[in-house]
Amino acid sequence: MDVSRTEVAARRRFKRGGAARLGLLALPVAFFAIFFAYPVAAIVGRGLKADGTWQFGRLVDVLTQSDIRHVLWFTTWQALASTALTLLIALPGAYVFARFDFPGKQVLRAVVTVPFVLPTVVVGTAFLALVGRGGLLDELWGVRLDTTVWAILFAHVFFNYAVVVRTVGGLWAQLDPRQEEAARMLGASRLTAWRTVTLPALAPAVAAAALMVFLFTFTSFGVVQILGGPTFSTLEVEIYRQTTEVFDLTTAAVLTMVQFMAVGAVLAVHAWTVRRRETALRLVDASVTARRPRGAGQRALLAGVLVTVAVLLLLPLAVLVQRSLDAPGFAYYRALTSDDGGTFLVPPIDAIGNSLSYAVVATAIAVLVGGLAAVALTRRDAGRFVRGFDALLMLPLGVSAVTVGFGFLIALDEPPLDLRASWILVPLAQALVGVPFVVRTMLPVLRAVDVRLREAAAVLGASPWRAWREVDLPMVRRALLVAAGFAFAVSLGEFGATVFIARPDNPTLPVAVARLLGRPGDLNYGQAMALSTILMVVCAVALLVLERLRTDRTGEF
Amino acid sequence: MLLGLEKATVRFGGRAVLDGVDLSVAEHEVVCVLGPSGSGKSTLLRVVAGLQPLDSGRVLLDGRDQAGVPAHQRGVGLMFQDHQLFPQRDVGGNVAFGLRMHGASRGEQESRVRELLDLVGLPGAARRAVAALSGGEQQRVALARALAPRPRLLMLDEPLGQLDRSLRERLVVELRELFGRLGTTVLAVTHDQGEAFALADRVVVMRDGRIAQSGTPLQVWQRPADEFVARFLGFDNVVDATVSGQIADTAWGKLPVPEGAAQGPGTVLVRPAGVRLVAADAGLRCTVAARTFKGTHVAVHLQPVDGAPRLEAACALREAPEVGETVGVEFDAAEIVVLG
């Protein structure tokens, strides 16, 4: 090999590794600066600045109003209650999925994950069809829960069941049963062995799952918007109400800041537990730990979990489909194509096209931005700046869609950045919500690629870029598809941000469902059910395709 | 010189992993770096490969300073300790990788892959998945992959480390023959002295990032440079001594040493073969503490009754005394080395 000719040129190139990494980060950083930091800054300015001076007294003014305090209190306790109820109902499920082998397990595991990617609007609508006025329980026994907090709590359990089963059950399935056996050989009873060996290993995963559920329910918007009625309102719903009904942007901004701070605190705790979770555990292949249930106790547990899944997860969706068909000759579906309803300037069916094209653009943006960020973050020698950026990327996920939408509304509608009239605004907001999913899916897979494989390629003559293409890319291609699928499903169902910025003549599916539900009459109600069904089917199909694609442990979701 | 290291130094934290190492490898020479784990052997290879930057000193290939030349343009091959075959490519894809990187045509790649798989004894294996290979086969594929782009220097990191003993002994002979036939220049590192002695034209013993001794296998074996090298090679009969003339005064009594030995205080090594067992009333009185069977001989561990350090003797199978017996010990000057 003749290497002497290239040596001089190569010498100059050798020092550029660090610069290349910064180059990778440039796009994600710019994206977040313009579409996240800037809108958030605008919210703070709107909330606390008047006539060019800071008015911190407003914070106190808003927070001392009794109705606001009521909202804060309700937001917090319903999130705590939802989290507790979710853990109570889902932990047995996590155990069953981790340690039992039964026919149809793979299919069922995919099915329980469907609710997690369902748009919140669909979840709300499905529960309305089950427990609301004229719902199934109302017809059968005259029971209505939509005026109580239970409808919201159960909808939250429905939504987050998969979070617990995936996070806790995923780890549980990989804990080496021989650890417990070792404890038993040393004289521990079955229960003591579980308590002293398995429980401590699981605790960080349970804590992480609980925090995630708390975060999702604390910032719950679509579900509460539909099921809460006039009585129950979370911070998110109140921000939306203050903006669109009361037109009090100052109060909305202050509430957004309060939520921002609360979420920041929860995320900090989450980051801490994730780091704890990374302590070295003996993990084994999940397929070797599952056994057929033995004895009456284990069979009863399995049956109980299956019944819970059927009643809590499948029944609402079944009722939703049934309601959408509850008129002769698919009347509700056919009504979607007519534009004489007056709800929209266009037939509701157009929302499907809008949603799909927005979601495709949003997915492309999210995969590009999130993918670049994940590659830059993969470096082991990443400095503090880079790790800080990692945490920052997670913020939009927890900070809630309403913050993003509200921020876009007040920040990007005037020079220097006037995107109000541009269709790109909606995909941008949806991409912002989708990026954390892309990063979380890609990062563990990218990090799992052995550095020495890249070194082996380098020694064989591959430049850093070539080594990445030849070694990393083939290994992460599948994760990239999964990430894109997640971003697509999230964009498709995105409601909180889109509802602020979607133009009246271009509604997305979730926005159209919410508007139909807001109008009286059986036809509107039926059309909402029909549109929700369509949305559910699209999301469920997207997810089931992903389930086939994903390897055993791709990312955290 | 094909490869030259000048005062090569690498620090991790405050600790010098390579500490001013000078080393040169001539064309067609097979050099083996031998040392315990943590002695800086692997870092040495990574420095030459360009995977680890130097804190000071220079790496020269064909007389050219390699500072600033990235790994993929140095034209050296490295076989990793655990092979690092690309899991998503088959055997042929792995072997052809370096050829593709250097822009070889498809036909060229195919014929070279076939040639190399024949060479390493895996003819026709090109379409097999690497996950389906045994440890020995993976090792052969890794070797073929490293050889394929005809690197000017081939480096091996613990080339046989993870294989079982009989396979290791067979492969070391194969490697030696192969390198001789191809005229490959090789820099290998290992912690196994048997492997190093069997493979190398020249052995370099490392300790704590420095070179403790360098020489032919025979030189190093016969005249270990110091106590560390002697003990690392498995010699335990090492004792402090004061040498005057042809007598060394030690805890085991007065030992005869060869002519021309360094005078004054020092350390003396007695090879087990130089410990002769005689009748109990002659020489140094010892009791037999243990015996271990070594195949060709028995290693007898002797405890001098006066409390001096233990001794190891190599005995023929039939002559080895039983544990607990008392024997006398005399020493053979030809098997005694005064260490530096």
TrEMBL record, chain A:
Cellular component aspect of the GO annotation:
plasma membrane
Q: Which UniProt keywords apply?
A: Cell inner membrane, Cell membrane, Membrane, Transmembrane, Transmembrane helix, Transport
This protein's source sits in the domain of life called Bacteria
One Pfam family name from the record?
BPD_transp_1
Q: Where exactly are the transmembrane stretches of this chain? A: 21-44, 77-98, 110-130, 150-175, 196-229, 249-272, 300-321, 356-377, 389-412, 424-443, 479-502, 525-546
Respond yes or no to whether keyword Transmembrane is given for this record. Answer: yes
> One biological process GO term for this chain?
transmembrane transport
Q: How does it sit in the membrane?
A: Multi-pass membrane protein
Segments forming domain ABC transmembrane type-1: 72-268, 352-546
Q: Tell where it localizes.
A: Cell inner membrane; Cell membrane
Q: Which family does it belong to?
A: Belongs to the binding-protein-dependent transport system permease family.
* Protein name per the record: Iron ABC transporter permease
**Organism whose genome encodes this protein:** Streptomyces spinoverrucosus
Automatic annotation (TrEMBL), chain B:
* Superkingdom field: Bacteria
Q: Which UniProt keywords apply?
A: ATP-binding, Nucleotide-binding, Transport
**Family annotation (SMART domains):** AAA (SM00382)
- SUPFAM superfamilies (UniProt xref): MOP-like, P-loop containing nucleoside triphosphate hydrolases
Question: Which Pfam families does the UniProt record give?
Answer: ABC_tran (PF00005), TOBE_2 (PF08402)
GO molecular function list: ABC-type quaternary ammonium compound transporting activity; ATP binding; ATP hydrolysis activity
Q: What class of enzyme is it?
A: translocase
Q: What is its EC number?
A: 7.6.2.9
Give the protein's recorded name: ABC-type quaternary amine transporter
Species, as recorded: Streptomyces spinoverrucosus
